[in-house]
Every structure is written in C-alpha cells, then in structure tokens.
Amino acid sequence: MSFFISDAYAQAAGGAAAQNPLISFLPLIILFGIFYFMLIRPQMKRAKEHRSMVAALAKGDEVVTNGGLAGRVDELGDSFVTLEIAPGVKVKLQKQAISQVLPKGTLKSS
Q: Transmembrane residues, as ranges (predicted)?
C-alpha cells in the first residue's frame, strides 16, 4: 500500500528557545491595565460621587430622577424619598433613582 501513499517521517526537533512566561502574559496584563484606567476606575469614581450625593440629600432639595421627574424632597427615609413634583402631588421613589441635585430655585424659574 505504500506504493500509492508515501510514508511520513517526523523531522528532528530543532532547539526551540524557551520564552519567559512574563513576556507571554504581557499583552494580557497591558490590556487589563487599559481596561482598569479607561473603564473600571472612572465608573467606581462616578458611583462614589453618586453615593455621597444621595447621602447628602436633605428636605427641601430640588432633584431630578433617572426618569426625568423634577421635584422637591418632602420626606427622607432609609431607602425611599418622597418628592413633591407639583403642589399636592407626591411621589415615593428609591434614593438611588435620584440622578442629580439641582441648584435652589430651579423649579420656581421653570
């Protein structure tokens, strides 16, 4: 049967240079560093600023929610806030739903 198919023989192994394991993982380490400084660190900073803003809420602050509702803080609880969005109209929502605190008098001017 060897008449139609020639036999294959392995060549002698050449002297392969041993690579430093640090060099082989260097691109992965650099990629993680880029992700950390471009994505993870700024997100952690924004989350920390949001937590401090929510912790500093007080009665009478004018805020905007994630849904776009603007109102004045009427009551504060541990995890919920009551907003007065119009005279006599109050809405209860989670503290984490507040996206920003407006300067005083913003709601009167609009």
A: 22-40
Strands (E), the chain: 62-65, 70-76, 80-86, 89-94, 98-102
Residues in Cβ contact with 91 at an 8 Å cutoff, skipping those fewer than 6 apart = 69, 71, 82, 83, 85
At 84-107, the pLDDT tens digits run: 999 999 999 999 999 999 999 888
Q: In angstroms, how far apart are the furthest CA atoms of the chain? A: 99
Token pair in block for residue 24: 């082989």
Question: Facing residues of 65 across strands?
Answer: 98
Domain of residue 49, residue span: 21-56
Indicate whether 72 belongs to any domain.
yes
Q: Which two tokens stand for residue 32?
A: 């993680």
